[in-house]
User: What shape does this take?
Amino acid sequence: MPTPRPRPRLIVIAALLLSIAPFGCSSPFQSVASYYLGAPLVPVGGGSGSGRVEVMLATLLRSLYVEASGLAPRAAHRLTLDGVAVASFVTDAAGAGSVGRSVLDSAQDPRGRRLAVVDASGNEVLVLADASQPAYRSVELAPLASFAMGGGFVERRMLGAQHSLRVTLEGVDPGSYDVLVDGAPAGVIDATSGAGHLALDPSAIGSESVVTVQRAGVDLFAGSGGASIFGIDWCANGRTTRAFGAFVAGEADARLSTRVDCGRRFTVEVRGVPAGSYDLVVDGERRAEIAVGSDEFGDTIGDITFGSHDTGDTRLDFDPFGVSFGIQQSGQALFVLGSFRP
Assistant: This one.
C-alpha cells in the first residue's frame, strides 16, 4: 500500500490540538507531539540532479517521502540514513523517481541523521540540503506536561536561515511564569491575559533539554526541548500472538512484543514436530533456520527471535505486519500464516 505523502497542513492541525490542554496533571505524551520537515535534496560533487524530502512524524501518521529528478535513467537508487538503506526506487526514462515509506521505529527516523540518495554503485548522488537553504522548512512541537489549569508547548521552527524557538502557555491562570532550561533561569512569560510566550535562542536548547515553567517557585509545566513521538521515541508495552495454519501434526505461532522504548522482538515458535531443521519463509523468501529439539519433558520445540536492537541475521529489519510467513522443510510447506495482524 503506498505511503501517503506528508502535508504541512497537518502541523497546523497539531498546533490547534495543542491549544486544548486538560485540567490537572497530564502526560506530555497525551497531547500531540509532532515534527515536519520539507527540504531540498542537493547534488553531490557537482552533479545535476535535484530532489525534495518531506517527513511527517506524529501519533497517527509517520511517513518519509522522497522525490528526485535529473538522475541516471532507468537506474536503481537507494534512500539511506547514516549509510543504511531504508528504501529504494528505480528512475524512469527521464531520470525521475520517488519513494515513500512509513517510519516504523527509530531505525527509520531521519531526525539528526545524514539522509542521502545513493546510486547502484554506492555513490551518494543527492543529500539533504543545509538548514540555511531558503526552501528548508521544519516545525517541531513538544507538549509540556501540565500540573495546573491550561497547557503549554515548546515550538521550534527552521525557515531557511531563520531559526526560532519559543515556549508558549495557553489557557493558564493570568500572571507571570518563570521558564527554566535544565534548571537555569531562561526568562519570564507574561501571561496576564491567560496566554503568552517566551522566545529563546534555539541553539541553547537541545532536544534532550528539560524545560520547566514555574509560578512562585512551583513547577506547573515541564517537558523536553524536542518532540517525543509515540511509536518512535516511546511506546506502550504490548504483545500480539498469532497462530499458523498447520498441514502436519504440531503447532506454530508468531509473537510480536513491544517495549516502552519502542524496541521490538518478533518470535516464531514451532512445537510438536520431529526434531530437525526447519526454514522460516517471510514473504516467499527464506529468512532463517529454526532448530527443533527436545526439551526436559521430551516434547519437541524450536524458535527464532528477531530484535530491533539486534545485529546480524537476527536484526528485525522488516515490518511483521501485513507480510506472510511460512515454515517449511525440504521445500514442503508445513505451517502458514497468511498475514500477521495486531
